């Protein structure tokens, strides 16, 4: 089990950008794929993007072309660069490693 600490959320206007960070505290030896999920009010948690230890990434259709996930294994961290944000991107964003999630960081996109 590891602890995940997200940062970088906030309020941004539609069309703007935000960068999220997640630092992993604990034993990384069994952490392989990591990712970002999000949950908007009244909606289930959904995958946004994931990245393997080797750097291969996958994105939800809603994130393709706008979001970039990256990983720094030396720093035990992953990142999510979010561009051209839309009001529909408003949600709490959670970092994920295996079955562990962080507490989340709120992203609010105003129209």
How does this model look, in words?
The chain is mainly beta and 111 residues long. The protein contains no helices and 11 strands. The protein has strands spanning 2-7, 10-13, 18-26, 34-39, 46-51, 57-59, 67-72, 77-82, 91-97, 100-101, 105-110. Strands 2, 4, 5, 6, 9, 10 and 11 form a 7-stranded mixed β-sheet that branches. Strands 1-3-8-7 form a 4-stranded antiparallel β-sheet, with no helix packed on it. A hairpin with a 4-residue loop joins strand 7 and strand 8 (77-82). The radius of gyration is 13 Å and the shape is globular. The model has no long low-confidence stretch (mean pLDDT 95).
- State the separation between the terminal residues, measured CA to CA: 39 Å
Percentage of β-strand residues: over 45%
Number of strands: 11
Largest sheet: 7 strands, mixed
Radius of gyration: 13 Å
SSE succession = EEEEEEEEEEE
Short description:
The chain has 111 residues and is mostly beta strands.
Considering the chains and any ligands shown, give keywords for the structure.
7-stranded mixed sheet; mainly beta; 55% strand; 4-stranded antiparallel sheet
Strand and helix layout:
Layout: E1 2-7, E2 10-13, E3 18-26, E4 34-39, E5 46-51, E6 57-59, E7 67-72, E8 77-82, E9 91-97, E10 100-101, E11 105-110
Parallel strand pairs: 2-11
Antiparallel strand pairs: 1-3, 3-8, 4-5, 4-9, 5-6, 7-8, 9-10, 9-11
């Amino acid at each position: 089990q590891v602890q995940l600490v997200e940062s970088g959320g906030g309020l941004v206007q539609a069309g703007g950008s935000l960068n999220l960070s997640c630092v992993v505290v604990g034993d990384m030896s069994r952490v392989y794929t990591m990712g970002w999920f999000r949950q908007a009010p009244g909606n289930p948690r959904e995958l946004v993007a994931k990245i393997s230890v080797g750097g291969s990434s996958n994105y939800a259709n809603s994130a393709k072309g706008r979001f970039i996930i990256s990983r720094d294994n030396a720093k035990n961290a992953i990142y999510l660069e979010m561009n051209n944000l839309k009001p529909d991107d408003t949600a709490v964003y959670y970092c994920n490693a295996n079955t562990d999630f962080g507490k989340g960081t709120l992203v609010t996109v105003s129209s």
